[in-house]
Amino acid sequence: MKDINNMTFGEALQYIRKKNKGCSSRSLLAVRAGVESWTISAIEKDEMLPSKAQLNAICDVLSSDELLSLIHISEPTRP
Predict the structure, then answer these.
(1) Which of 27, 29, 42, 72 has the most Cβ atoms closer than 10 angstroms to its Cβ?
(2) Collapsing DSSP states into helix, strand and coil, what is residue 30?
(3) Chain centroid to CA 49: how far?
(4) What is the dihedral of CA 44, 3, 24, 11, to 10 degrees?
(5) What is the DSSP letter of 4?
(6) pLDDT in tens, 20-77
(7) Helix axes 52-62, 9-19, angle to 10 degrees
(8) What is the rounded CA–CA span in Å between residue 47 and residue 8?
């Protein structure tokens, strides 16, 4: 098993999505999470981060709290 703490957020999402047998394609994840497939693609390419609502929906679909634990790594530190 890979250590997702050493991945970018997009890499971690892609890894978790691919190991999830019920939702291994971007388009299926997008439909089930209620987002556009280009959004999943952009997140996985680290071109954008999901909104809180998108993140919660994606985690619900993937039944994964691992992604929630990574969001603090992806966000810049605020003064």
Answers:
(1) 29
(2) helix
(3) 9
(4) 10
(5) G
(6) 887 889 999 999 999 999 999 999 999 999 998 998 899 888 887 777 666 654 444 4
(7) 30
(8) 11
